[in-house]
Amino acid sequence: MAVIFILFILLVIFSVIASGFYVVRQQTVVIIERFGRYLKTAGSGIHLRLPLGIDSIAARIQLRMLQSELVVETKTQDNVFVTLNVATQYRVNEENVMDAYYKLMRPEEQIKSYIEDALRSSVPKLTLDELFEKKDEIALEVQHQVAEEMSSYGYIIVKTLITKVEPDAEVKQSMNEINAAQRKRVAAQELANADKIKIVTAAEAEAEKDRLHGVGIAQQRKAIVDGLADSIQELKEANVELSEEQIMAILLTNQYLDTMNQFAAGGNQTIFLPNSPGGMDDIRTQILSALKVKGDK
Predict the structure, then answer these.
(1) Considering the chain, what is the average pLDDT of its residues?
(2) Residues 86, 40: one domain?
(3) Pairing relation of β-strands 21-24 and 66-75?
(4) Phi, psi angles (nearest 5°) of residue 47
(5) Alpha carbon 179 to its chain's center
(6) Domain count, the chain
(7) How confident is the model over 89-97, as a mean pLDDT?
């Protein structure tokens, strides 16, 4: 019996001593209290405390980064209700673990309250379009405000992100319709400009075509007149005893016959020239007048 009693005493002593050892995991700290009063903060590793309830582990606090997500509904300057999805990343300051544990009962809820208050102060100063454009600036401003408030409680606000801005469903539909109308208007303007360019280009091409056609006709007529003048000059130099009017009649008659041959060779059936060589007198008279004017120059 004595041996059993001794073994029992040794077992109890061993259990008491063993209960005084505790292990703290990496990125975790432990708050140790003695008779309900803060004693110390223990970091990672194995530690020893007084057993039998003298020293107790009050809490194990994570030092890793945590994330809190919340949804905030507020109103913009142009009276549009929007829903903001906000994600906040925070962690406990290792140097203020005592404040983080004893000053706040529900730190996550406290952070959410500060964020909601900061957003409801900032967003109503902006229109809906400005909110979309400056959401990163707003998130940074909220982060600074919340970080300043939470630092006194031993928490560090690492990052605050506005992950989503969702207007009211009717407003969102109206925005989509306005955007679609603007795009259609721009497309219509572009199409109109393209049609305008086509019309202007076609008109310029037609004008250039007419100009070149007129230049060609003028050059053709000049060549005919020059050819007739040269032919008359050659006949004069050949000492042909004919007057200028007789020479002109012969040349015009030949020109008329050549024109008729070309007209018939093309398979045409209608002609608006004089229908007999005698009808060329008017043309001859006009050519002679032109030659006299040219000779006077």
Answers:
(1) 79
(2) no
(3) unpaired
(4) -135, 165
(5) 13
(6) 3
(7) 89
Tens digit of each residue's pLDDT (9 = 90 or more) over 23-43: 888 889 999 888 888 888 888
> Residue 85 — very low, low, confident or very high, per pLDDT cuts 50/70/90?
very high
Are 45 and 96 contained in the same domain?
no
**Alpha carbon distance 217, 141 (integer Å):** 80
Alpha carbon distance 213, 59 (integer Å): 101
CB of 287 within 8 A of CB of 228? yes
| DSSP output for 61-98 | EE-S-EEEEEEEEEE-TTS-EEEEEEEEEEEE-GGGHH
Instruction: Kindly report which listed range (44-53, 54-63, 146-155, 221-230) carries the lowest average pLDDT score.
Output: 221-230
Shared domain for 140 and 73, answered yes or no, is yes
Looking at residue 248, its pLDDT comes to: 65
**Pick from 112, 147, 173: which residue ends a domain?**
173
**Residue 110 shares a structural domain with residue 123:** yes
**The domain spanning residue 104 has which CATH number?**
3.30.479.30
Rg (CA), the chain: 53
97 CB contacts (<8 Å, ≥6 apart)? 29, 31, 41, 61, 154
